[in-house]
Amino acid sequence: MILLPSAIPTLTIDTPVQNTTKLLYVKSKRLWVMSDLDNDIIQVDTKGNMKETVYSSGPFCVSKDDALLYKSDPFMEYEDEDEDEDDDKYGDRIKKKTSEISITLLKTKKSEDIIGHYSSFVNGHILVLIQISTVTESPWQRHLSHKITRYDENGLKIEDIWINDRIQGWRFSSFEYAYITENKNGDIIISSKKYKTVVGMDRSGEHRFRYSHPEDLTPMDICTDKYGHILVAFESSIHLLDEDGAFKKILLKNMSSNIVFTCLCLDDKQNIYVGNDRGIVNVYKYLKDE
Q1: Choosing a second label site near 74 at 20 to 30 A (CA), which of 11, 58, 87, 220?
Q2: Paired strand residues for 52
Q3: pLDDT tens digits, the chain, 290 residues: what are they?
Q4: What is the domain count for the chain?
């Protein structure tokens, strides 16, 4: 693995969304993109042509078998044939959409909100970041806690990994939506806009590292490459970290003060796709060909 001296631009994709907040590559040379201005996930080709639209109430990811996994609003799903009679017992759910069908893959309890999820390209496991809300009546108080639930590719639960928020520095407060990924060494990495930090933990949830921008800028999105590097998108730059969360280099600097980096992903050839608040996705090469 050889890093190029600087990222080389190779392609620009003008998407139909106004502000790209999340994007993921699909093996068919297409992208799923989402804007914070609506609840639609839009599939586009490399020319920016819209191919498909899916309604979602939250985060999404792409599975190992190239299916779209997206958070679905339970109140919009009562017409589905696969729903249970006891549907009111459940909260959020993740649906799996292939080219042919869309099915409910997994459900959370009524008190559990999905605020991020990720599908491993190694084993197909699905990591779901969940915020749990509990209320006491006397005195009335709302308590928040967080866990990561690991499911297999069929939506069967494997384990709960509880997050010690005090150790991570998050003080049991709301994450809002957060980005989650898994590295090749098994570390789980979460990027929190609220706390302006990227935190790494091992498979059991024990703290491994914390990374923040030296100028206290907000991390917008994260991903990992096949070599174990962690890529972090800040508003004005893309940082490359090693698997221990230590800074290695700035891969890309934003040369315009009027444009904000908002999200990033990698394709199967390790090219970086960087989205911004204008709905533009720029593609860069940062590794020398093997």
Answers
A1: 220
A2: 43
A3: 789 988 999 999 999 988 888 999 988 889 999 987 777 899 999 999 999 999 887 889 999 999 999 998 665 554 454 555 555 567 889 999 998 788 999 999 988 999 999 999 889 999 999 999 888 887 788 888 899 999 999 999 999 999 887 777 776 667 778 899 999 999 999 998 888 999 999 999 999 999 999 999 999 999 999 999 999 999 999 999 999 999 999 999 988 878 899 999 999 899 999 999 999 999 999 998 76
A4: 1
Q: Look up the CATH number of the domain holding residue 169.
A: 2.120.10.30
CB burial of residue 188 (10 Å; 0-12, 13-18, 19+): buried
Backbone CA torsion sign across 161, 167, 171, 176: negative
C-beta of residue 106 within 8 angstroms of C-beta of residue 92: no
- Residue 201 structural domain: 3-287
Long-range (24+ apart) CB contacts under 8 A made by 237-240 are 237/261, 238/7, 238/264, 238/272, 238/274, 239/213, 240/3, 240/286
Peptide bond into 59 cis (omega under 30): no
Query: What count of residues does the chain have?
Result: 290
DSSP-derived pairing of the beta strands 237-241 and 68-72:
unpaired
